[in-house]
């Protein structure tokens, strides 16, 4: 079941702070596909102090996919 995985992702997003967003950005720019996917979700839903932004979310989801991340 993917439920534990999804619960963990939701926990990360709910607890995400602006500093956490900066950490995800550093990781994503270094090629971390999981961080890219989390950034896509954070931008899509407005977690971590981010203003929801569909374009930025799509960019990070696309980059995550290109890095081999599947959900």
Compact description:
This protein has 71 residues and is mainly α. The protein contains 4 helices and no strands.
Descriptive report:
It is globular, with a radius of gyration of 11 Å. It has helices at residues 3-14, 18-29, 33-45, 54-66. By secondary structure, it is mostly helical. The model has no long low-confidence stretch (mean pLDDT 94).
Give me some keywords for this one.
mainly alpha; globular
Number of discrete helical segments: 4
User: Judging from the principal axes of the Cα atoms, what is the shape?
Assistant: globular
* Helix content bin: over 70%
End-to-end CA span: 12 Å
**Strand content range:** under 5%
Radius of gyration: 11 Å
How are the secondary structure elements laid out?
Elements lengths: L2 H12 L3 H12 L3 H13 L8 H13 L5
């Amino acid at each position: 079941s993917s439920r534990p995985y999804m619960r963990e992702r939701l926990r990360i997003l709910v607890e995400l702070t602006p500093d956490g967003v900066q950490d995800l950005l550093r990781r994503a720019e270094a090629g971390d596909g999981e961080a890219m996917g989390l950034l896509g979700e954070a931008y899509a839903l407005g977690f971590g102090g981010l203003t929801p932004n569909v374009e930025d979310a799509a960019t990070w989801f696309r980059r995550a996919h290109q890095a081999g991340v599947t959900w």
